[in-house]
Design goal:
Elements: H1 8-31, E1 36-37, E2 44-45, H2 49-77, H3 84-89, H4 100-113, H5 122-145, H6 155-173, H7 185-209
Antiparallel strand pairs: 1-2
Helix pairs in contact: 1-4, 2-5, 2-7, 4-5, 5-7, 6-7
Length: 210
């Protein structure tokens, strides 16, 4: 009997699909009770599930931009001279020089289509995985945040920290990161700070638009 091995990235993708099938119906039910007064008037306002997901996607994109600007500022402070767009979207296109999210995207592609992904797609895969992950996390934030009457002050930084921690849970399982305890604080702190910026800006954008 032949067995088919499911790559870890495909398994995580299937988990995310299951999450959407579970969370969205729950959100639809919760959204029916999410009406609240606006100002001093008795005008009732409800956020639809689709509206919360769209606002979450926009907020996630803005948060990703803010995080990348923070990382770019650190790049310039350390002596880098690249322009922002070249730093953000350019660079060498091979699998040795792209980030871990790009490796997840590669595994997902190769696991689903059962064929290798050439080096020339590495940089594009890196950009799609990075931005797609930031926007997808924003959608998840929208699903959760849309069911609340108001978000607590710590919601943004907490969200950013959760996104940061999740990467140090899933990526070591895929063999792309070392376990978190094998990194020093000085190695972890810059990445954590960038994710705190992401979470805070995502929450502020969502709250403003909502």
């Amino acid at each position: 009997m032949h067995t088919v091995e499911i790559p870890g990235s495909v398994f995580l993708f299937l988990l995310s699909v299951m999450f959407c099938h579970i969370s969205v119906p729950l959100f639809v039910s919760a959204a029916e009770h999410h009406c609240h007064n606006k100002g001093g008037n008795n005008v009732m306002r409800c956020m639809t599930p689709l509206g919360a997901i769209i606002l979450g996607a926009i907020a996630g994109a803005v948060g990703t931009t803010a995080m990348d600007l923070a990382l770019y500022a650190r790049h310039r402070a350390s002596g880098g001279s690249d322009r922002f767009l070249a730093w953000e979207f350019g660079g060498k296109s091979d699998w040795e020089s792209v980030s871990a999210p790009a490796q997840v995207g590669r595994r997902l592609y190769e696991g689903l289509l059962q064929r290798p992904l050439a080096d020339r797609w590495a940089r594009l895969t890196n950009n799609l995985a990075h931005w797609g992950y930031g926007i997808n996390c924003g959608c998840t934030f929208g699903v959760v945040g849309g069911t609340l009457r108001r978000l607590p002050l710590a919601a943004g930084p907490t969200f950013g920290a959760c996104v940061w921690v999740s990467s140090y849970v899933t990526l070591p399982l895929l063999g792309l990161y070392k376990p978190i305890w094998k990194y020093s604080f000085t190695e972890l702190a810059p990445d954590l700070a960038a994710h705190l910026v992401y979470g805070t800006v995502t929450e502020r954008t969502f709250s403003t638009l909502a």
